[in-house]
Write a structure and sequence with these properties.
It is a single chain. The chain is mainly α and 142 residues long. It is 47% helix and 0% strand. It has a domain at 77-142. Helix 4 runs antiparallel to helix 5, helix 5 packs across helix 6 (120-130) and helix 6 (120-130) crosses helix 7 (134-141). The termini are far apart.
Length: 142
């Protein structure tokens, strides 16, 4: 009963909610293990994994890495303005907001680039329409 009297009103209200107040003690926070640097574990049958052969074009990697990871994707190499934005983004550490924002912008720019290269006349019409030159495209079509 003495323990119940020492509890504040908020503690009494939330006492039956599992996990309430876990941010109070860092030892009981579920995210704490993720905040620590991971330790190397044994048990692998190799010291270093087999490496992929290096591609003929640049592959982007995190700023923290000295070399490429053992497995990496080569389906879409960086190209154009979106590739430049991706190179800048990967020079910034992953835990920074500009890294993520630049990658999002690069995705949008890549979509625009692909649309422009797929149908340049249609894209030119959209751009001219946005800046008030739609009438010029109409004159060119007739």
């Amino acid at each position: 009963m003495a323990e119940q009297e020492e509890m504040t009103t908020a503690e009494r209200i939330h006492a039956d909610i599992p996990g309430w107040g876990v941010d109070g003690d860092p030892g009981s926070r579920p995210g704490v293990p993720m905040l620590l640097k991971p330790e190397r574990r044994g048990g692998a049958h190799w010291e270093r994994p087999e490496r992929q052969p290096p591609p003929d074009f640049p592959v982007l990697k995190r700023a923290e890495l000295d070399e490429l990871t053992p497995a990496f994707g080569t389906a879409v190499p960086p190209k154009g303005l979106s590739g430049v934005l991706r190179r800048v983004a990967y020079a910034i550490p992953e835990n920074r907001v500009p890294h993520v924002m630049l990658l999002l912008v690069a995705d949008r720019v890549d979509v625009l680039e692909s649309r422009v290269f797929r149908s340049p006349a249609k894209s030119l019409g959209a751009v001219l329409g946005l800046v008030g030159g739609g009438w010029l495209l109409g004159k060119l079509r007739t």
